[in-house]
Design goal:
Helix 2 packs across helix 9 and helix 4 packs across helix 5. By secondary structure, this protein is an alpha/beta fold. It folds into two domains: 125 residues, Aspartate Aminotransferase, domain 1, CATH 3.90.1150; 231 residues, Aspartate Aminotransferase, domain 2 (3-Layer(aba) Sandwich), CATH 3.40.640. The protein contains twelve helices and 13 strands. Bound molecules: pyridoxal-5'-phosphate (PLP). The site of pyridoxal-5'-phosphate has 13 residues, from helix 4.
């Protein structure tokens, strides 16, 4: 895949400029609001009156790293706080390539498009393994393409764009493949709080110097604008990742990290459960309307995206524009996620108008 301005922005601009009301199902910005402790933490930070307005430690506030380490059952030395999950993925993929044990990065198709983009930017070579119709990968396919040229295997569970949640066997085998090929498995788990299947298995379950787990608070606390994520890696990777982070970003944002720390300590598990319940309802309503529209689709096991295919209406950019103009619904063209889903469209269920959008689609395709 080419590295270019992500399609997201083009589609969002087209939808914003449209001459009619459009339901935006393109962006990945949660609409359900953050837990109150996020704002409280931010206010408390502001009220310190400037004493703490200077650089935080580059690898992240010590207390936040300790909180993450305690929650994830790892040593604090393994935690690097980053500028979102995006920053964590960049550091992890960069580290995998810098080891000099190969220049290939294996990823799935469909793929979260920033992985191929980052691969190219970091001077690596993209290798794709095609997922099945439900978005699952057969680890045997990964083993087949993995070789001494493999620097990294990057996966995402729960998955954007397919909604797949990889089972335990897949995760165990991916770690083993990375080990057998002297590569690094990067497991991007930014949607870990959005598992509806009960099957989610973090790669952290497998203690190995050949896996790096990346995560973020962007989605789980509905704060995509705060830019706080983290990577967990064996110290032999964590230390060079910290250096790369320092050289590229100097440090992260102290107010954001302070607010996240306060929110982690003061948010009831109900917040996450309520969000999942809300999304379950949206998924049910949306897929019901897709049935009415005669569409084929995958019901997400996790994350908050639905891929759908409408008969005789491939998910091209032209058709996405047509749906915006004629139906008033903006989705993403499947081609934005690789070659395997060019017939499909992706809809993000991060709008209170998901039901309305579904009805509009059902009417349009009726
Ligand atoms: C799979 C995946 N990884 C990473 C990110 C980026 O997360 P962050 O906003 O924390 O950088 C996203 C955002 O949509 C994503 O879908």
């Amino acid at each position: 895949m080419e590295y270019e301005e992500p399609l997201f922005f083009r589609v969002m601009k087209y939808a914003a400029d449209a001459d009619r009301d459009v339901v935006d199902m393109v962006s990945g910005n949660p609409d359900w609001g953050s837990p109150p402790a996020v704002s409280e933490g931010l206010h408390a930070y502001a009220d310190t009156g400037g004493d703490d307005f200077q650089y935080p430690p580059s690898e992240g506030l010590r207390e936040l790293r300790e909180e993450i380490a305690a929650r994830r059952g790892v040593d604090v030395s393994q935690v690097v706080v980053t500028n979102g999950g995006g920053g964590a993925n960049y550091l992890a993929m960069g580290r995998a390539l810098e080891r000099g044990t190969g220049d290939e990065i294996v990823m799935t198709d469909p793929v979260y498009p920033y992985y191929p983009g980052k691969t190219t930017m970091l001077g690596g070579t993209q290798r794709f393994v095609v997922a099945d119709d439900e978005g699952h990968i057969d680890p045997a396919d990964v083993r087949e393409v993995a070789s001494e040229d493999t620097a990294c295997i990057v996966v995402n569970t729960p998955n954007n764009p397919t909604g797949a949640v990889y089972p335990e066997e897949t995760m165990a085998e991916l770690v083993a493949i990375a080990e057998d090929n002297d590569a690094i498995l990067v497991s991007d788990e930014v949607y870990d709080h959005f598992d509806f299947s009960g099957e989610f298995t973090s790669a952290l379950e497998y203690d190995s110097p050949h896996r790096i787990v990346t995560n973020s608070f962007s989605k789980s606390l509905a704060i995509t604008g705060f830019r706080v994520g983290y990577a967990i890696a064996d110290e032999r990777h964590a230390e060079p990742m910290k250096s790369r982070h320092m050289l590229t970003s100097v440090a992260g944002s102290r107010p954001s990290q302070a607010a996240v720390l306060h929110a982690l300590r003061n948010t009831d598990p109900d917040y996450y459960e309520d969000t999942r319940a809300l999304l379950r309802e949206r998924i049910a309503a949306f897929t019901e309307a897709l049935d009415a529209a005669g569409a084929e689709y995958t019901t997400p096991e996790g994350s908050f995206y639905v891929m759908a295919r409408f008969p005789g209406f491939p998910g091209t950019l032209e058709n996405v524009y047509e749906l915006i103009d004629e139906a008033g619904v903006a989705g993403m063209p499947g081609a934005g996620f690789g070659e395997s889903r060019t017939d499909w469209l992706r809809f993000a269920l991060v709008t209170p108008r998901a039901q309305e959008a579904a009805d509009r689609l059902a009417d349009y395709f009726a």
